[in-house]
Structure formats: C-alpha cells, structure tokens
Design goal:
The structure is a homotrimer.
Chain A: E1 9-14, H1 19-34, E2 38-43, H2 61-69, H3 87-98, H4 104-113, E3 117-121, H5 122-128, E4 140-142, H6 144-151, E5 156-159
Parallel strand pairs in A: 1-2, 1-5, 2-3, 3-4
C-alpha cells in the first residue's frame, strides 16, 4: 500500500477455481503485498468463481446451465483433489481451522485491504455469461492486455 | 514480428492438453505478440496434443494404446472441467461462437502468423512415441535447454 | 554448484503431487542447475508428496485419514491423466524406461546433488499433519516468505 515511487510488482493469472489453488494464490498475494510488492491478480475462466458473489448466473439456456454446474463464490468451491462430493471441502476447512489458518473469504478481504489489484477477464465473463453485478465489490474488468501490461514489469508472474 | 533489435521476450511451457488451458495459453501468446513481445511456447507432455495433426500415433503396443486414449489435435481436446464425455467441449464451442471468440485452430494459426515460436519437447515425443510427422507444420523440436535459454531472458514465463 | 558471485536464480512452487508434473519440475530444475542457475523448489500442498518418505502420516483422525488417501512418496504418485487406478503409473514407468529416461527418485537425488534448494511449506505441513520426520533428508522447512525472497530475484518463477 505505502509502496515507494517504483515499487516491485508481481502478477498472477488465477485460471483455476479450485479451493486449494485459490488459497495458494491468495497466500502468495498477501505475502507479497506484506513485503510491499504491488500485486495484480487476473481472474479468468474457472478462477472467476473466486470473486463471484455466489448467486446463480447466465442469461441463455447454456449460460444458466453453466451457472448451475459451475456456481461461483468462495464458500462453494472445493479442492482439486479428494473433494468427494463436498466432504473434502468440509474436511479441509476443519483442518485449516484447527491450525488457525485464515478462512478463504477473510484472505480475500485481506488481499483487497492490502491493495492487491484484482481484474476479472472480460472475455471469460462474456463467454460464461457472468455480469459485473455477479462479482464482489472492488474488482476491475479488463482484457488480456491489462495482464500483459503488468506481467512485463513483474518480478514474477504465475499461472495458477 | 517487426520487433526492434532487443525485443522483449516471454515464454510458456504448455504442459496441459486441456482445451481451456491451451486456449488461455494462445490468448496470452497472441496478445503478447501483438504487443511486439517475442513469444516462445514449449509444448511438453499432454500439451503436445495442441500441436498434433490428430492422426493415431505410436509404434509399440503401449505407444499405440496411448495414441488411442490420448489422441491429439485441437479439435479433439476437451476442457479441464465439465467435459462430460465431450458435451462440455461442444457447449464451450457453442458459447464461444455466440460471443465471437476466435476458434482454437484459428488462434493457433494466428499465433504462427504473428511469429510465435513453437517448440515440441523431444523427450515427451520419444516417450509418448509421437513423431515429427505427427505434428503440424512450423514446429521445432528441442530439449529443455531450448526452453531454459529463452526463459532466462523472458519478462515473464508461465507453466500452463 | 560452482556458480559465480552473482549467479542467476530460478524458482518453482511445486503445488501438484502428480507424477508427470513433478517430473516436469525436476527436469526443469536439473536442466537449470546444469546451466549454473541457482534453483529453489518450494513444495506446498499436494507437492509435499514428492519429498515425503512414503510412510503413513497424521496424528488426529482426519490427519490420519488424509495420510491414507493422500499417501506420499515418489513411488506412489501417479500421472494427472490416464492413471486408471495405477495402470497409468506402471505404463509410464515402462515407457520411460524404454526410452532411458531417468527414474523419478533418481532425478530427485540428482537435483539434490546439483545443489537445488528444496523448501517444504510449513503451513501445508501443519494443516496436513506431515512432520519433518516424514520428509526425506536435505529439505528445509519455511513459509511463503522464503519463496517470495527468492522469487523476486528469479529470472523465472513457475507455479507447477
């Protein structure tokens, strides 16, 4: 937040909507922001789920079908492995709580408070029929150019 | 293509053969190339499917089995999620068309026209019994060293 | 190992515990190390399996359940695709052997001999109830800060 005139930058493409990968992305983002690195997260494809409010989305028949099958929101996403119909999600939350790991929605809030810039991929939103009103507050909408502009200046850039 | 004497560089390892990840890789590659960045894509493991012609491959019993189970070609690959035996692929293509997103084979052609350098991983080709004649035109074959040489000079390098 | 006073650096987050992705990570690491690049691998989440001895882990009920379902060790992990209940793992090993590809445990040993620095993610170890005694020798334990410190100085940094 209080970075100097030429702060270091880092960027991430959050492509995955899996709970564990989104968590890894946020831990890196918040860690980097705490080190005064200017972080930009570009959410695309399934990664949009991490910044959706969680309501049903879609306008056409297929868009609405996708909205049901691929419902967004941090409370709904499960891990990439061992999800077992939601049991994995429940189990991971429990194990994280036991070890005092910050819950995912709070990690996201922290990221926003630390000034992590979040961009939602415009093309993915159009294809998946997800509107700006379906996203949480504080998200910009942009194209691949907005990622590339910051990726070129980044100390590191990850595809997650 | 008309980059200056010391153009910026970017590189990607395309490890995944999923339709959605290959699409993300090509969107980034074409976007970067349009910004006069010299892009190198290194296709390895399942990522080889994106640059295969689509014919059956393999010489030995196992190689031919793998060729059937893991058949390449941009028209055959499905998304990493919600593929549902090919229905997802069909649905995504339809939703992309509705929003005028360039189809995948055309994106690949554009990338080649924009001068994106494509390298197929030699070791993966040998292990999976995929020959140079199984790949589309304009692909170089190389080892991990050819990736590392460009990765060290890249503004950003992604593992997709 | 015999890097000069300011060697080039590269870093990787090994998030995945899939055999094929771990192999890709080690091939890149060993290739880079052979080019005198100082490589740091940060193993987190499922990636910890690659540096586990392979014994059963966990203390509480859920930790032990996870230890069974997600048992570590390079000999147990299977590929991200076409594993088919272990058949894929067997088939890949066979195809790799036929082409004289170094087996995974030997690749890991080579990486350590080449001076590749390996860090296990402390938080993941705590959440998954994996102890230092469950890891192979020569692994440091550290937080996200230890990754970020090297990522900022890296020529390239990958999320695998």
């Amino acid at each position: 937040m209080s970075n100097g005139p030429n702060p270091e930058k880092a960027s991430m493409i959050v492509f995955s909507g899996d709970m564990d990968k989104v968590m890894a992305a946020l831990i890196i983002a918040n860690g980097a922001a705490a080190f005064d690195i200017e972080v930009t997260m570009f959410f695309t494809f399934w990664g949009l789920k991490a910044i959706q409010k969680g309501n049903l989305t879609g306008k056409g028949v297929m868009g609405r079908m996708l909205g049901v099958m691929n419902r967004g929101g941090l409370k709904r996403i499960g891990p990439s492995r061992l999800n077992m119909g939601g049991m994995g999600r429940w189990m991971f939350k429990k194990m994280m709580k036991k070890r005092n790991v910050t819950p995912l929605p709070e990690m996201l809030r922290q990221a926003q408070e630390l000034g992590v810039k979040m961009i939602a991929c415009e093309m993915s939103m159009q294809v998946m029929e997800i509107g700006k009103e379906d996203l949480i507050d504080g998200i910009q909408v942009g194209g691949v150019g907005s990622y590339l502009a910051v990726a070129s200046e980044s100390k590191f850039s990850l595809f997650i």
